[in-house]
Write a structure and sequence with these properties.
The protein is of the alpha+beta class and about 375 residues long. It has 2 domains: about 240 residues, MetI-like fold (Orthogonal Bundle), CATH 1.10.3720.10; about 100 residues, no CATH class. It has 15 helices and 5 strands. A 5-stranded antiparallel β-sheet has the order 4-3-2-1-5. Strand 2 and strand 3 form a beta hairpin. Helix 13 packs parallel to helix 14. The longest helix is centred in the middle third of the chain and has 37 residues. It starts with a helix and ends in a 5-residue tail after the last helix. The model has no long low-confidence stretch (mean pLDDT about 85). It comes from Psychroserpens algicola. It is a multi-pass membrane protein. It is found in: Cell membrane. Keywords: Cell membrane, Membrane, Transmembrane, Transmembrane helix, Transport.
Amino acid sequence: MSNTKGSLTQLALQKFKKNFWGVLSFWLIVAIGFLALFAYVIAPDNSQNANQMHLSIHSQRPGFKVQMLYLPSGIETQQNSFSRVFFGNANADIEIPISSYSIDKEVLTYTEYASDGLIGVEKTIDLNRFPNKDHSVFIKKKTFLFGTDKYGRDLLSRILIGSRISFSIGFIAVFISLVIGICMGSIAGYYGGKVDAIIMWIINVTWSIPTLLLVIAITLALGKGFWQVFIAVGLTMWVEVARVVRGQIISAKEMQYVTAARALGFNDYRIITKHILPNIMAPIIVISAANFAAAILIESGLSFLGIGAQPPMASWGAMIKDHYNYIILGKPYLALIPGVCIMILVMAFMLIGNALRDALDVKS
């Protein structure tokens, strides 16, 4: 039995490797996941939520360069390296865009950056306040590869950190949907009768409610926030899983290996979990990949409507909401960049779902 299982697994893996788009999507998802996990290490702005605002350089084009004055924040909070790497730097330096500066003895004089040909305010700082008086430490040239948003924040950093929301919503929502869907579908399919009728009634009622409307209702009931969206999306995606599991179990429970398990005196829980579910995992895996993509789209829609991840948390959907009017103002990249990121990630999960469907199809 184990040899057969191993051979079937190896055959499915070989078929998956032959699918160019499936393999490409897999490595693309791995790369985006790596970027999301270590976003604060890679991002130019490693402050929490990449929330360094510079209104003087708002809405600048990709590749914009400016001299930046870095000053210690003066806020001392205890933060270990683990927290700094995965949750951002709580003691990030203060950044001030400047157009020119001069140093006279121990005094630094600088002119703040001003766009549209205006002259910024001139200010002075006593360098004796800081232990290191080398101006090269305080003043560096900074490049914004993706430009800046309407608040003057680094768009690349916001994109990288916003990828965490999309990945998190996918994993958590799919996990919730699998737990509920597999339990409800297994009970309905295995026992049948009145139990099946009651569960199918619940499924049909939930299925009849528009997904986005149901998510909005649950989100408003639980409140706006990060975790509330995860729970809301997960509670609306279990229906498809339950229908698939129910149909597969209705077919599988009449198989000979289930009859043999009953004859050996195994209880229903063991028969479902140890014998039936392992043999119907292929369609569940495929629908999970599709649900992952759907969860990303739903979260983006909720953030666009303002009931998803709340500011200053970075979210691709919220970034589109903040900048969609810039499409007609000559700066469409502010909305197109996060939109393209959503499209790429969703397409990757859809393609990997199709590749898994083909690889796990025993008929082919």
